[in-house]
Amino acid sequence: MKKNLFKIALLSTAVMALTLGGCSNDSDSETTEPPVESDMRWISLTGSFPDANGTAGNGGTRAYAITEENAANPDYEVDLFKLNGAEYVQGFALKSSRTARVQASADGKFLYNIQYTGTEGGVFNKYSVSGAGQYEEVGFELNTATILGTAPRWVKAAEGIGVGVYYGEALPAFTGTAPNYVYQNPKGTIKIANIDLNNTAITNTGTINVDLGEYEAQGYYISRADVPVLNQAKTKLYIGVNVNRHNVNGTVTTNATTGVISGWETTDERNIGTVTYVVDYPSLRNAKIIISEKSKINNHGYRTMTQHLGTDGNIYQATATSGPDILRISKTTDEYDQNYHFNLDTALGMTGTSIKAWRYISNGLGVVLYTTSGSSGGYIALVNLNDLTATKLATDIESDAALSTTLGQFQNIGAIGNKVYIPLTPAGKDGNIYIIDVTTKQITKGAKLKAASGSFYLGAY
Amino acid sequence: MTKKYICYIALLLVTFSIYSQENKASIYGKVTTENSALKGVNVIVEGTSITTKTKSNGEFTIAIPSGNYRITFQHPEFITQTKTIELKPNSSRKIHIKLKSTQLVDPKIDVDIEALNDVKIQGKSKKKKIETTGFAVNVIETKEASLRNLTTNELLDRSVGVRVRQNGGIGSNVEYNLNGMSGSTIGLFLDGIELSTYGQSFNLNNIPLAMIERIEVYKGVLPSHLTGDYVGGAINVVLKKDVSQNSASAAVSYGSFNTVQADLSVTLRDKKSGLSFRGSGFYTYSDNNFETWGRSTTYVNHLQQIIRPYRAKRFNNTYKSIGTRLEAGFTNTKWADQFFIGYNGSSNYNEIPHGITMSVPYVGRYNETEAHVFFLNYTKKDFLAKGLALSVNAVRSNRSTYLQDTIGYAYNWDGNVREVIEFGERVPLKTTGGQQGPKTITNTDRKITNARSNLGYLIANGHRLSLNHKYEATDRTDFDLLIPAYNDLATKGTLVKNILSMNYEAQTFDKKLRTNILGKYTTNSSNQTRSEIVSTNGVNSIVKKDTLTYNSNFGYGATLSYNVKPKLFIIASTENSYIMPSESQLFGAPEINILPNLELEPEKNINYNLGFRWGALDIGNHKVSLYANAFWRNGYKKITQQVVDVSQIQEESDADIQTTKYVNLGQTQARGFEAEITYSYNSRLNASLNFSKFNNVFKQELDESGASHSFYGQQVPNEPFLSANANFQYRFNDVFQKKSIVNAYYNVGYVGEYYIVWGQPDWSLTPSQLTHDLGVNYRFPSGKLVASLDIKNVTNAEIYDNFAIQKPGRGIYFKLNYTFTKFL
Q1: Among the four A81, A167, B78, B624, which has the fewest Cβ within 10 Å?
Q2: Per residue in B292-337, pLDDT tens?
Q3: Cβ separation of A52 and B535 shorter than 8 Å?
Q4: How confident is the model at residue B255 (pLDDT cuts 50, 70, 90)?
Q5: Nearest-CA distance from A370 to chain B in Å?
Q6: Taking a C-beta distance cutoff of 8 angstroms, is the pair A451, A431 a contact?
Q7: For residue B589, is it left (φ>0), alpha (ψ between -120 and 50) or beta?
Q8: Which residue on chain B is closest to A117 by alpha carbon?
Q9: Per the CB < 8 Å rule, is B306 touching A143?
């Protein structure tokens, strides 16, 4: 630490002299950055590191902002996990004891995060981005835990608007006593919180009393809500849900050791299509479900956004993180477009693909990160949602098995104009930023990303 | 360390010949060792302030009024003896005492009998003796502290190498850290029986120091009378056993945060039959309504914006505890040195004011615990044969833990319900269940049988063999009182643990070298009955299946103590053992937010200790003692508490950070040392300074991808690793009144800063802490009444132990102690 002070002092003097006012609140910048301009488009890279026990990716999230120029330079190196003794020296530690769920403004000037578990799980923080490790907390911290739990499912639902959702208050799946238990649908509620990202405030909340109607008697139930997105008119909010099915002819399940009842037997047999909850925005009233006829796979994300607003005004929703489908919710009817179905398997002419993360870029073009059942590794494809085609874009690390772990936790694909930025590092190994030009369909290797044990890069913003 | 002796010497200097006027009588005599006169033995008349020292010919004289007395003979290198004596008016009595060397006495066998003038003599303080056996052990004497406004935890926290991490005020959850070892690796014992057997309501927060004879703190290697699954060491609380005199004492303390602590104890003995009775009781109450002003407390407005720091006053943290311990039996009869049966009952009411952080308060989450314990104690020297000693301590406990959390609104630290905008309107904020997760009412009943017996045999002079057996059986039943059907099919059964241990202790090389070899064999078995629903032709029925699990392990160790020159001992110990996960680690403990983890494996530990004890060295009026110990601990598959990983929880509603569970953490290594220096000047100033530093290091060499691990060799985050304490005491005589004594105390404690996560980001820093405590007590000339005033955290410093939970600021406490002797 002390050894570094002199170096840091020198550096900050140099940076100060150059910029006449760019000031740092963090003592970490080891690489010299070009002079800071106020409208510089910074690309923030985030990565997670292990917890105290060494569990990969569970310790927290660090961020580092680079220029487009550096991102494209294969000789430039980002080492987010560089240690000097016990101290990280490059980048900024976002407040979070575990992997953060980071979102960003479209211009890259602000990062938004709700701490995902950890001692302050559920606390929202907003950071302004001024290059390298210079992130400054701005606005209010928000306490979302009471409404959304300490591991909130939240995303930026539209520019300046965050929405968090939480499924809870499930009923016990049974009534009666041993041995003749009777099945009871758990129903439950979905809590919704609208977050004003500009003024950092929760401006409205609402509750959906889950009601699957006729499907409840067949054992279908919701166990998670996620990935809320707003339509173009900002009048409807679409919430992805995870639907599972109980075997109504079964009985209770118990904890193998303690014998305490843990739930009700489930079944994989599924006839209900992909389900999305719709509520009015911003009133959060008039909840109803819409069901796709084109897919029976769930649409909730794991740590990434699975539905995006297209330039045509429709919502495109992937059955991520386990399916190959992209479905469309019509801007005119606010219902699934039952005539539309993009299937990655079909588009690539293969089987067993599952979309782990994706992003709609523009004019029907999108980028998909996927895995396949046939081989290990993680892959990139450019998809055309209008003519239902896809082009696989090869990377030199795509067959690395550890990449599937990374994609499972992947959070955000960066996009500036027609350029797409994807940091790819197999868990614990070095990698690169891959840059895709969606108009030319070219993929190029950009800046080098240094990883460390149990650490990997999760997103570009 | 030698505070007790220093104190007695002090008493001697000041209060010689007080009772000299009327009703004269005297005691005189001689103190010898096996073969020669002994100089400098403290002769203390208990319950009075009369003391003297033997001269170079071993002789002493005490003038004293007639009556019944207990006379204690103390010398640091010899076993203390106490003699009860009846002194008629105008008579004199001659006593001849032979003191035994502290060398080679089985620590468990507490009774040494020496028939002499038909007076029974008992061994008592054994601080020095225990500390030079070769174990890394410190003995904390409680006599002085029991007069002050101190809890047992506070006293422990000031001693060398001990860090007590507490979540708040009195009654809050406590974790003990002995030089970097913590959690389940640390055993907590009461007279060699796990303290948990006595219930959560009988713990080191509320057991009054007045009931305690001494506390032994073992680091690392444990003696055979404290065996268990504990590789980090153990804290053994030894309760007062002595009943040789009819006496009673009472104390009551009141202070900040509406804290009341009271205790009472009585001992009675019928001399003819040896029938004895000891009874104690305590009551503790605190509102714990202290203020916090650091970052940890927040105010959340209706837009859920967090305002911090927010000065808050705890309003939801009442702690109430009541307990009693009654025992009756016989002492010093032909068939038993001690035979007691007794009852130990206690109950607690404890509000849980917040989760793992303090950011928002809980209202109405509380637990109630209760324990009814029956016990039996038996000790006999020369049992069946000469040189064979038996001791048995058996406990049967019935304890319960009740937890309730049913209030469905969220609160702010100002005590009001938080607000939120819901469907466009500003309304009170409802939670999605209770205060922490779903609404809960649970009760856990445990029936525990815990017995320890020890058989010691003196093979030849200087060679002793001990066999120790421990049996523990736990029967646990959980009730969900909100939805009882959840437990309809609950597994029933008993967990049984047997530990057989032996040690062989030898004194060789002119009794300068003491070696101790220990072996331990542990077995765990569980006999469980599971219930399963079987459906035949559409008709459900419950089928019960019995399953038996069994595992065992073997551990061993050795200690060594070498008396290099007078007063200098080199001590060393080593141990290689396994520890099994405990019941609460496996099955969880909802009342302290711990989830079950049934996949836990036993952890293996190899420990080494090496150190010395030197002193007390006399340099004129100055006395100095030194102690230092270095340790090296290797843990494999170390069991440690971890915040629950959300991916391991199936239902999202469980994914709450406010809970943790125990996991096996790869490999760790702790290296460090502790040291203590004690100093006294002219028997008026006593000072001690202790220091402990360790490196708890991450030792997993390879990561998941097979590369060398980036964190290899680094300090594991979230553990304090540097601590120091200094204690000062100064005595003033004849203040306000002749023959009165005033003691002034000052304690300063330091804990170094540490980070909560890897990489040391600023926000995860737990700052270093410095606390100052002051105390003063006044002993009235009668010696019966002592008044104490204590000011804790004098500077009102912002102090933390755990996960940014701020501890109490300045507190002022007043206490009165009264001792009755010679009644009935």
Answers
A1: B624
A2: 988 788 999 999 999 988 999 999 999 999 999 999 999 888 888 8
A3: no
A4: very high
A5: 20
A6: yes
A7: beta
A8: B657
A9: yes
Q: pLDDT digits over A17-36, tens only? A: 444 333 334 434 344 444 45
Asked if A124 and B281 touch (Cβ cutoff 8 Å), the reply is no
Separation between Cα atoms, residue A155 and residue A227, nearest integer Å: 6
Q: What is the mean pLDDT of residues A389-401?
A: 93
By Cβ distance, the residue of B410, B424, B666 closest to A54 is B666
By the 8 A CB rule, do B605 and B639 touch?
no
Helices (H) and strands (E) in chain A, counts: 5, 35
Q: Which residue of A has its CA nearest to B422?
A: A205
Residues of B with Cβ-Cβ distance to A172 under 8 angstroms: 483, 485-486
Tell me the pLDDT tens digit for each residue of B596-648: 777 888 888 888 989 999 978 888 889 999 999 998 988 888 776 665 543 44
ipTM: 0.87
A102 contacts A409 by C-beta, under 8 angstroms: no
CB neighbours of A288 closer than 8 A, spacing ≥ 6?
Answer: A277, A278
Question: Using one digit for the tens of pLDDT, what is the confidence trace for A55-104?
Answer: 666 678 899 999 999 999 999 999 998 888 778 888 998 877 666 689 99
**Least CA distance to B302: which residue of chain A?**
A202
Kindly list the residues from chain A whose CB atom is less than 8 angstroms away from the CB atom of residue B804: 119
Residues on chain A touching B700 (C-beta within 8 angstroms): 54
Inter-chain touch A258–B478, beta carbons under 8 Å: yes
Across the interface, do A97 and B643 touch by the CB < 8 Å criterion? yes
CB contact under 8 A, B533 and A179: yes
Q: Are A147 and B710 within 8 A, CB to CB?
A: no
Phi, psi of A68, deg, nearest 5: -60, -40
Pick B305's closest partner by Cβ from A88, A120, A201: A201
A412 bridge partner residues:
A459
Contact A428 B707 (CB under 8 A): yes
**Residue ranges of domains in chain B, CATH in brackets:** 1-126 (2.60.40.10), 239-821 (2.40.170.20)
Q: How many residues does chain A have?
A: 461
Which residue of chain A has the CA closest to B533? A179
Between CA B90 and CA B26 the distance in angstroms is: 8
Which residues on A lie below 8 Å from B303 (Cβ)? Answer: 140, 142, 201-203
**B140 SS3 class:** strand
According to DSSP, residue B585 is labeled H
Q: Note the pLDDT of residue B125.
A: 43
pLDDT on residue B109: 34
Q: Pick from B340, B437, B476: which is nearest to B652 by CA?
A: B437
The pLDDT assigned to B348 comes to 94
Q: Residue B236: is its pLDDT beyond 90?
A: yes
- Average per-residue pLDDT in chain B? 82
Q: Name the band, by pLDDT with cuts 50, 70 and 90, for residue B104.
A: very low
- The answer to whether B598 contacts A283, with C-beta atoms less than 8 Å apart, is no
Per the CB < 8 Å rule, is B422 touching A189? no
Residue pLDDT, tens place only, A283-340: 999 999 999 999 999 988 777 889 999 999 999 999 977 899 999 999 999 999 999 9
> Which burial class, exposed, middle or buried, applies to B394 when counting CB atoms under 10 A from its CB (0-12, 13-18, 19+)?
middle
Both tokens assigned to A43: 């690309």
Residues of A within 8 A of B655 (CB-CB) are 117, 149-151
Distances, alpha carbon B39 to alpha carbons A211, A254, B684, in Å = 90, 72, 22
Please indicate whether, in this complex, the C-beta atoms of B423 and A259 are within 8 angstroms of each other.
no
Is B703 in Cβ contact with A56 (below 8 Å)? yes
Kindly tell me if the per-residue pLDDT of B755 is higher than 70. Answer: yes
Q: Given B587, B645, B761, which is nearest A93 (Cβ)? A: B761
